[in-house]
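Severity: low
Component: inverse-folding endpoint
Summary: output formatting inconsistent between runs
Steps to reproduce: submit the following structure tokens with default settings.
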């Protein structure tokens, strides 16, 4: 089946490419059309043309569409989870969890439509009233990554539509299936022609056309630091709003007083689940010397028990890496770590399974320092490095010694250290005795330093990006 682009309410064909299952490279999930630059321009024009009516649409119309979308997603969570697992490689339970989160996001913003509010204030001048309202920012270009192929589109699309914007979605070329299914649901849920547009294909064509268009009023992007810089430069040229979620080199600190079992589960989940392909994953495990050896031994034992296999198989803990390019990047960093003098204490080898796929055994380095490339650069795979430190003060200093600042975590039974870490960790999100990956759908998401730019995503904080503030005065 050819899955086409959605432009101005019509499904539009184009040159197509195959969506391949990373658990079984012999399996083609489907054929997905690529949009041309001209297709993308038409999608932008359609979004612009529909903006006036949608931005002033009755709130019950927007509420009903978003609610209907969320209801269908949750009703089809098993089916959509299977699709997600097949195209991205995360295990089916993780994939179903992601689909559920997407449904919850739409449900949340369906409610937010009914809670739109403003302010009425008295002026400092007599007989004048002041009204402060939020209005949609306009046509929003949405560029999403491959690692969360339905949740990230959901947490950008839902608030954009809730606040009265129109959208042009460009999903990652590697995983178009989940985004296509989501847009199909929105289309059937009643999105008017031109309000929701889908343009699949290459970033060099589709993404660049979005960046070059003066009719795109805002761009929200999740992806690499390099591409994020290009989004920023292009957006400054057009004086448009832009929001960037990029990389992470997230620390997970383990103190001597930690509950070892809690620390091991949090570290294993943070570093290796979802094949380590999360911007919130912990790839730096900063461990104080009193618990270091026990931690390394216990974590190695935990990794030994993890099953790496087909994402759809029952009992699989870790699925394949997403594609050959990412697998090579992971392998290259494992070689870099060895050459830098770190010790590969566990794993790091390519695995063979019943079906041809991109399987990699989780890799755990010890004897690493925070100056090594494996501790400075985002690998985006199941690779983590243990860094030994003397005490809490050194652990905090090492944790903050990074150009990134998305998420951080600490394992400790000390209220003093937990409280101090929450206040002094230079990250947008801080976890205590929990994995660094995994946040709720109704709270703000985002980081500091090179990890993020602009206002937070998710929850009520999403209004900061998807709306603009208007102040109106009236003479009584």
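Observed output (run 2 of 3):
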């Amino acid at each position: 089946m050819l899955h086409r682009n959605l432009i101005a309410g019509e499904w539009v064909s184009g040159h197509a490419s195959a969506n391949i299952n990373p658990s079984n490279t012999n399996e083609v999930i489907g054929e997905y059309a690529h949009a041309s630059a001209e297709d993308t321009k038409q999608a932008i024009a359609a979004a612009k043309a529909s903006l006036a009516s949608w931005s002033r649409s009755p709130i019950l119309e927007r509420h009903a569409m978003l609610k209907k979308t969320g209801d269908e997603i949750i009703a089809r969570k098993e089916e959509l989870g299977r699709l997600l697992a097949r195209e991205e490689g995360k295990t089916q339970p993780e994939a179903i969890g992601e689909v559920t989160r997407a449904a919850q996001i739409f449900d949340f913003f369906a409610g937010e439509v009914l809670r739109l509010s403003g302010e009425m204030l008295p002026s400092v001048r007599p007989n004048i009233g002041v009204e402060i309202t939020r209005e949609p920012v306009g046509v929003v270009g949405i560029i999403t990554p491959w690692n969360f192929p339905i949740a990230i589109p959901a947490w950008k699309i839902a608030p954009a539509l809730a606040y009265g914007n129109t959208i042009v979605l460009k999903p990652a070329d590697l995983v178009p299936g989940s985004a296509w299914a989501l847009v199909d649901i929105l289309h059937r849920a009643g999105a008017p022609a031109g309000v929701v547009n889908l343009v699949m294909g290459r970033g060099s064509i589709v993404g660049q056309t979005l960046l070059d268009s003066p009719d795109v009023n805002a761009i929200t992007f999740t992806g690499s630091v390099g591409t994020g810089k290009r989004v920023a430069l292009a957006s400054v040229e057009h004086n448009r709003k832009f929001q960037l979620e990029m990389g992470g080199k997230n620390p997970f600190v383990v103190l001597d007083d930690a509950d070892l079992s809690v620390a091991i589960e949090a570290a294993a989940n943070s570093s290796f689940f979802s094949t380590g392909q999360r911007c919130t994953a912990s790839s730096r495990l900063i461990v104080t010397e009193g618990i270091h050896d026990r931690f390394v031994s216990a974590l190695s034992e935990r990794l030994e028990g993890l099953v790496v296999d087909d994402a759809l198989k029952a009992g699989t803990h870790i699925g394949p890496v997403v594609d050959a390019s990412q697998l090579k990047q992971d392998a290259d960093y494992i070689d870099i770590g060895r050459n830098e003098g770190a010790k590969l204490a566990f794993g790091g080898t390519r695995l063979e399974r019943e079906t041809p796929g991109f399987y990699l055994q989780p890799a755990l380095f010890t004897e690493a320092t925070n100056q090594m490339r494996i501790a400075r650069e985002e690998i985006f795979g199941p690779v983590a490095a243990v860094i030994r430190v003397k005490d809490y003060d050194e652990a905090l200093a090492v944790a903050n010694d990074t150009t990134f600042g998305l998420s951080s975590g600490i394992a400790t039974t000390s209220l003093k250290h937990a409280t101090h870490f929450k206040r002094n960790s230079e990250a947008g999100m801080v976890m205590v005795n929990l994995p660094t990956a995994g946040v709720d759908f109704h709270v703000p998401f985002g980081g500091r330093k090179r990890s993020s730019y602009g206002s937070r995503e998710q929850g009520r904080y999403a209004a900061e990006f998807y709306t603009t503030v208007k102040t109106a005065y009236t003479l009584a």
